[in-house]
Amino acid sequence: MRRFLTLVAAIAISATIIACGKSNNGAEDKPLHNTPNEEPAGKEITKKANGSIRIMSYNVGVFNKYIKDGYEDVANIIKEADADVMLFQELDSCATRTGGVYQLKHICSMLGKEWDYHFGAGLLSFQGGKYGVGIAADKTPKSKAAKNLNNYNDGERRGLAVMEFEDYVVASTHLGLKDEAQINQLAEITAFLTEKYGASGKPILLGGDLNAASDFALIPELKKNWTILSTTATATYSTEKDKYCIDYILLLNNGAKVEVLNSEVVREAKSANVKTASDHYPIFIDMKIK
Prior knowledge:
By secondary structure, this protein is α+β, with helices and mostly antiparallel strands. The chain has one domain (53-289): Endonuclease/exonuclease/phosphatase (Deoxyribonuclease I, Chain A, 4-Layer Sandwich). The protein is built from five helices and twelve strands.
């Protein structure tokens, strides 16, 4: 959940990883990962409900929260979950600290089938690259959009990535830490999505790390325009110690309806250790469009 924007020593790019060019000289960074206690993988992720669309949101911590370049574990979790759409937060795009890798492109290359993807920058200039959020989908969208959000005196700027499909719209974001920033950033998002897609009659979904637990000022504010679809009964942060549910999937109240068949926080997977893949647990909903 917390930012990793302290400077780290430049690391070499492996020939097997998709890179975006040379690292910035002089960008000195600390390692982003530490060494966690190794734990065995757990039970298999719940199968997707028949005939449903599985939308998963995952703050991946630039794939370096606990394990260096932990792409494989995250990819295994996504494949086991059989997600149709992925909403990612905390992605580096060609930044020095993570080896100049376009992380969204790289993780999609590991998912076993062709995925479309779209990046939305929060920081437009960060260590020779960018930092923000992204979406990946196993089908081609009708359109894509992105928006850079204001920071409202709350540190870094935030981003929004959007994909529009024939029958629904989905967006990924990562809000600031303070009440004022969260409320105003969500207002920006609501206005942007309503203006572009509100009259389409399509369900408009927003997922991500909102940095807001149930007692934060954001939650009653968001309920004026949004409905929470994902479960809030289980903590999503952190994987080291249960603290808060701060990751959500929402539906804009524009009159469009969906049926949620299942919603879970993925705390275990058979294919990887979820606790060390990131400091957030991934969440998903299985939905049908009414």
